[in-house]
Amino acid sequence: MENQDYQILLYYCYAHIADPEAYREEHHLFCVENNIRGRIIISSEGLNGTVSGLKEDCSKYMEYVTSDPRFAKTEFKIDSHDKHAFNKIHVRAKEEIVHSSLRHINPNERTGKHLEPKEFKELKDQDDVVILDVRSNYEHKLGKFKNAITLDIDNFRDFPEKVKELEHLKGKKVLTYCTGGIKCEKASAYLLEQGFEDVYQLHGGIIKYGMEADGEDFEGKCYVFDNRLAVDVNKVNPTVLSTCYVCETKSDRMVNCANPTCNIHVPICEECGWKMEGACSEECKENPEKRPYNGTGYYQKNTNGYNPYKGLYRKPDKDKIRSLHD
């Protein structure tokens, strides 16, 4: 087994940030000085991130976040890994920590009842319960809970419009879930606002459910927003849910299309992967910019010219920085 010297952290926290840009600067600086990489969003409503680093660096990072009284309640989903799951660090200030078109909702004021993984597992199969996946198409096509209702949406901001199709479920207990829990905070609150009375959410999402309930009855794999693309969740009764994008045979082997102008992430079986040279279609296969396929379907992004100091007004202590290419 490979050394698992690194960790991947998934987290969010809804908390008021008076000056998001100033905090973005401070947060970015800490990440650079401690070799933390990943994607972090800062807004007036809180922070949302997925990052990676050596275990000791991740410990420092978690302590840094939770030592701030605003984010003391932040819960981290921690996964072990053999290397960084990101090539760069991006800390950005945005209007929302997840693009939802539900800016009026404050999850700290009202949201669905939080269910721990074991509680969710016990409740999900009852007759008066429906399970609602609030994620996008490309996510739930790769994996979802058994018998879950999925929505035909390409982005979470389309969720409110689709709720109109769920009116017939108002007499049921509605259990919402997503990858790490952040989307459910607003999705469950919006359902309550629209007249649904008995609404719950899976605390910590699919990732925590896999860690604490062995992922039972989660079919397929879970799409994640780092270089892994997809992770196993179910240790009890795993199945393959998705089909190859090319030949439609069962496959959960995620591939990043070799055509960089396409670049979609879709399941492609190993045979089609080699046949199509890592491309998702004949058009992409013939693209002159197509990247060489090595059988994995993952392409290391070129970090030449990458400057971790970009966007910083203050310069960090370079002596604290370890190599960006370790």
From TrEMBL:
Stretches assigned to coiled coil: none
The reaction(s) this protein catalyses: uridine(34) in tRNA + AH2 + O2 = 5-hydroxyuridine(34) in tRNA + A + H2O
Gene Ontology biological process: tRNA modification
Composition skew (Polar residues), residue ranges: 297-306
One Pfam short name: Rhodanese_C
Keyword NADP included in the entry's annotation: no
Domain named Rhodanese: residues: 125-218
Disordered as annotated region, ranges: 287-326
EC id: 1.14.-.-
Keyword Oxidoreductase on entry: yes
Skewed-composition ranges (Basic and acidic residues): 314-326
Alphabetical list of InterPro entries matching this protein: Rhodanese-like_dom, Rhodanese-like_dom_sf, Rhodanese_C, TrhO, TRHO_N
Keywords on record: Oxidoreductase, tRNA processing
PROSITE patterns assigned: RHODANESE_3
Family the entry assigns: Belongs to the TrhO family.
The protein's role, per its UniProt record: Catalyzes oxygen-dependent 5-hydroxyuridine (ho5U) modification at position 34 in tRNAs.
Protein name: tRNA uridine(34) hydroxylase
Organism name: Litoribacter ruber
Taxon lineage: Bacteria, Pseudomonadati, Bacteroidota, Cytophagia, Cytophagales
